[in-house]
Amino acid sequence: MKIVADHSKCMSYGNCVAAADELFDLDDDGLVIVLDEEPAPELHEKARRAATMCPTKAITLDE
Amino acid sequence: MSGESLGATDRVAIVGASLAGLRTAQALRSRGFTGPLTLIGDEPYLPYDRPPLSKQFLAGEWARSRIELISEQPAQLDAEWLLGEPAIGLDTATNTVTRAGGQQITYEALVIATGSRPRTLQHLTTGQSDRIHLLRTVDDSIRLAAHLQGSVVIIGAGFIGSEVSSTALGLGLQVTVVEPQAGPMQRVLGGRVSQWLADRMRASGIELLLDTGVESITATGPENALRLTLSDGSKLKADCLLVSVGAIPNTEWLTDSGLVVGDGVVCDEKLFAAERVVAVGDVARALRPDLGRTVRLEHWTSAVAQAAVAADNLIHGRAHARPFTDQPYVWSDQFGLRIEVIGLPAVSDTPEVIWGSFDGSRFALAYRQDGRITGILGVNAVKPLLNIRRRLNQQPTLDDDLILAAAS
């Protein structure tokens, strides 16, 4: 799985961080940082949750 | 049948094809459900997102394609889509949903996600006019966008009313907001922050009429502006009127269904309304054991989070189901502010500043009732609230020490 985050869509809601703080954070401008672009299998479910929780579809997953 | 997990050939019917319905369908597939899936929706469209309808989409900044919720091809969900016609009946004794055209769909498991619709002021209105608007659907938003001109009047300063007033102001329009309570969004913000927001709205150029109700709305012809009479006797003219006075859950179709209905579909803490029947999103009134009562939320985040739990619970069966315990979380974007609320603070609860300051226009507050924290509110306080939400993942109750430590 590869996590792709689109800064042009990110509006700093932080739902991704709330869903999977091992994988996401917000930088000083409030934009998403992907902490681990190719997470281990045990984090895949959290990554999916983060993607579905993003209100602006800024997170996509290549699975 | 009771408590059993979903079989590979069991059909799941999802009534409601918007955010909650879609996310439940996606969660079912993502968790390995391969059986037949049918989504039933009253609107003739594939699921799209509603929050932008009062903001970017209304302003004409975002195209229709940007609010679509299905990013992948619909076929990848492997579902049957029955759109453009509402469900009008449910019989849980025969496991049958009936659509308006008479078609019947039988299911082995059911998801109720029929959402809510705007309350109207038809009882106060004389005459017909296409200058009167409600806002729930994309068609509503397109129609409103086309008519946003002249003097814009908005009745109700809740989430929708406040956001539309901000959008209309941003388009250079003259906007008057009429609100019967003492402040905008008072029910969710409480008195202090509501007054702060009122000041902010007025400073931006909104004419805000608080503690003011509407006695009558009169339409005298398609060429004429609407005439409103307010509770203080004054008159108001409106070239474009938005009625945004709250929403009603869509449960009329569940009369005689066998389910318990009362301001939403009543369900337990695991979102079950009955055996193999779950409710998700705006329509769901779910038990919160931590609060000792049922709660119905109209929050985007709850719809998505509930969908995942509901899907899991249907798949694994009631005996192995887990409760939905996420703290409520909702946001609003208006007047350059990112407003966020965690939990369920009551209007009467006492707020305490835990980060920032009112003067600085960036703050986070903790609300308390009898000393216990009932909710957190943030205005332009994304990082502190994110810290709190991160800590809530480990420990879901709004604990005193947790909150204060996380906000520092």
Please report the two chains with the greatest interface, counting residues with C-beta closer than 8 angstroms to the partner's C-beta. Answer: A-B, 17 and 24 residues
**What is the general shape of chain B?**
globular
Task: Report the CATH topology name of chain A.
Answer: Alpha-Beta Plaits
Number of helices, where a helix is a run of at least 4 consecutive DSSP H or I residues of chain A: 2
- The CATH class of chain A, by name, is Alpha Beta
What fraction of the residues of chain B are assigned to beta strands by DSSP?
A: 25-35%
CATH-defined fold name of the largest domain in chain B: FAD/NAD(P)-binding domain
> What's the architecture of the largest domain in chain B, going by CATH?
3-Layer(bba) Sandwich
**Average pLDDT rating of chain B:** 94
Strand order, sheet with most strands of chain A: 1-4
Helix content of chain A: 10-25%
Straight-line N-to-C gap of chain A: 5 Å
Q: How many distinct beta strands of chain B?
A: 28
Q: Major sheet of chain A, described briefly?
A: 2 strands, antiparallel
The total beta strand count of chain A reads 4
Summary tags:
heterodimer; A: 63 residues; alpha+beta; Alpha-Beta Plaits; two-stranded antiparallel ribbon; 2 helices; 24% helix; globular; B: 408 residues; alpha/beta; FAD/NAD(P)-binding domain; Enolase-like, domain 1; 3 domains; six-stranded mixed sheet; five-stranded parallel sheet; 7 helices; 28 strands; 22% helix
